[in-house]
Amino acid sequence: MSDKLQDNRWKWAGTPLPSDPAKAAHTKVLVLIHGRGDTSEKILKVFERLNLPDFACVAPQAENNAWYPKGFMAPMAENQPFLDNGLALVKELHGYLSAAGVQAHHLYFAGFSQGACLAVDYAARHAQHYGGVIAFSGGLIGDTLEKNRYSGDFAGTPIYLGASKTDSWVPASRIDESEEWLNSMNAQVDKHYFEDNDHTIRDEEIDMARRLLAG
Fold it and tell me: What letter would DSSP give residue 72?
């Protein structure tokens, strides 16, 4: 699997992933997904802010620095095939980590903006007891949310949803709707709104995410 460690479609940071599956089974791994116009290298600066020396972190790279062309609440067809390609890349990475020995309860998904949407939507399509999911300014994808799109049971997985209450890119109504759907799949959702108008990752959110990841 050493070729996957060198795959140019994602970048690694933090503690190295052990080659021994028995040791990898005890390693916590964060899949960290960048937003539109960003890169895997830049989103790893968020991992630096989280200060998690015992974690391995891997950041996938979107083609042309965007996971899909339209807004995340556009009709699904308008974001294809790019959305499916992005989800497939995360699934491939997930499969590699599982084959390497990483346990689901030690696997975390996080992202910002477009990457947050991809992270939480992927997790909902493949729900199980993960270590946690963190969406900095993001929610479930699509003009409407449909039950047949999601599967599995989060079995108490902690999920953080946070954004400005007046974020022009991510309506509070969709975050509320995402919270309802995720809770219905037995996630434990922690939702936070902020009174500023910023589309960003706040220091307060970094602290909240660190507590989730360290817990």
Answer: T
20 exposure class (CB count in 10 Å sphere: 0-12, 13-18, 19+): exposed
Helix (H, G, I), strand (E, B) or coil at 200: coil
Residue 186 CA neighbour count, 13 Å, CB half: 10
107-112 and 28-33 strand pairing: parallel
What kind and span of H or E run contains 159? strand 158-164
Q: What is the pLDDT of residues 88-106, one digit of tens each?
A: 999 999 999 999 999 999 9
79, HSE (Cβ side, Cα atoms, 13 Å): 22
Per-residue pLDDT reduced to its tens digit, 23-65: 999 999 999 999 999 999 999 999 999 999 999 999 999 999 9
Cα-based torsion angle of the residue sequence 108, 146, 166, 156 in order, rounded to the nearest 10 degrees: -30
| Domains within the chain, CATH numbers bracketed | 2-214 (3.40.50.1820)
Q: In what order do the strands lie in the sheet with 158-164?
A: 10-14, 55-60, 28-33, 107-112, 132-136, 158-164, 188-194
Encode burial over 198-214: b for 16+ CB neighbours within 10 A, e otherwise. ebbbbeebeebbeebbe
